[in-house]
Design goal:
Length: 359
């Protein structure tokens, strides 16, 4: 072979290799959401161009319900991300209203409409399995985020895991209480995977210690219900050394109750809810905040777009953000925004001011 022809053949080979989906198509976890990583263990990769489809696209977006202001912000983040992609013709939104039967019906309707992809925040660990099988059979890619699910009939998932959330809060209490004492446990919504796994994380953290759970109730991640619970616990179990909370609104409610009763506030876990962060800063209490990014909504849209563009995604991604501590509280608290804001956020400043600005 002459030298010129040999060089051309090598160049052609290199071009083919680097154009190959194996090298060029796999999505970086960080492009989906800050802090994302590929989950260890069995974690298959979608085939290149497996779900590739010509635009414009219609993407279904199903949530289990507006349990608190976090879900509202997560939806804002998803809608904003969708607005950045002119290829998305429509975001078909559905609110499951905290009912598994309603969410199943919503997803069935999306399948019937032949949407191009479905993004799901599941209400149940098991109930959605049949309808996700229907979506898979119809060839519709499904992206799951924010709450874990028992089914494997989805294309990819992005999870800031509940286990991590609950465990870092539990570890904080173990350290502050020196491994012994009585705690209240404020859980989220019964039956929702996010609550179940957060609680499991707490139990993992306190296992083998002398920390005892003396009271445990569901507050639905709500300020109002959380306040009623804390008022009741103040009367029934006033001798408490620490409080583990599954959500920032409930933590803030408990702080207010202790102040109303004129009692010192014990070490309490929280979340990146701005109302809680402001109360933490104002009171100077001993606390920390687990981080559960509302940007998971935007990440779900990005993942759907990547799949429809023909890129390759792993089946499982995890997001394990470090908690907010006294050392970095000032980086996250926003006195200029309302209590309903959740930190951190991927929304631009103008939208944060629009949705959460104090007027």
């Amino acid at each position: 072979m002459r030298k010129g022809a040999y060089i051309l053949s090598i160049l052609a080979l290199l071009a083919a290799v680097f154009a190959s989906p194996v090298f060029a198509q796999e999505v970086s976890p960080q492009s989906l959401i800050d802090g994302a990583q590929v989950k260890a263990g069995d974690n298959p990769l979608t085939a290149a161009n497996q779900y590739k489809k010509a635009a414009p696209w219609r993407i279904g977006f199903s949530i289990w319900g507006f349990g608190n202001t976090w879900m509202t912000q997560m939806v804002h983040e998803a809608r904003y991300e969708a607005s950045l992609h002119p290829e998305i013709k429509q975001l078909v939104f559905a609110d499951g209203q905290s009912k598994a039967t309603k969410q199943i019906a919503d997803i069935e309707d999306m399948i019937a409409q032949k949407v191009d992809a479905i993004v799901v925040v599941p209400i149940s660990y098991t109930a959605l399995t049949p309808v996700l099988k229907e979506a898979a059979k119809a060839g519709i890619p499904v992206v799951v985020h924010s709450t874990e699910i028992g089914s494997s009939d989805f294309t990819t998932e992005l999870q800031a895991t509940g286990l991590h959330f609950g465990e870092v809060g539990g570890q904080f209490l173990v350290k502050e209480l020196k491994g012994k004492g009585k705690i209240w446990v404020l859980r989220g919504q019964a039956g929702v995977p996010a609550d179940t796994f957060r609680y499991k994380g707490l139990l993992k953290a306190i296992k083998g210690t002398d920390i005892k759970i003396v009271a445990e109730q569901y507050g639905d991640w709500s300020y109002n219900k959380g306040k009623r619970i804390c008022e009741s616990l103040m009367l029934s179990h006033p001798d408490v050394d620490g409080i583990w909370s599954s959500g920032g609104d409930m933590s803030r409610a408990c702080i207010d109750v202790f102040q109303e009763f004129g009692k010192p506030i014990p070490p309490i876990t929280g979340e990146g809810n701005n109302g809680f962060l402001k109360r933490w800063k104002e009171t100077g209490i001993t606390s920390m905040a687990s981080v559960f990014p509302s940007a998971q909504g935007a990440a779900g849209i990005r993942a759907a777009v990547d799949l429809l563009e023909g890129k390759q995604l792993r089946k499982h991604y995890v997001v394990l953000p470090p908690p907010i501590t006294n050392a970095d509280l000032d980086q996250f608290v926003r006195p200029d925004l309302s209590d309903n804001y959740w930190a951190p956020s991927s929304l631009p400043e103008n939208l944060l001011k629009k949705y959460y600005g104090i007027h």
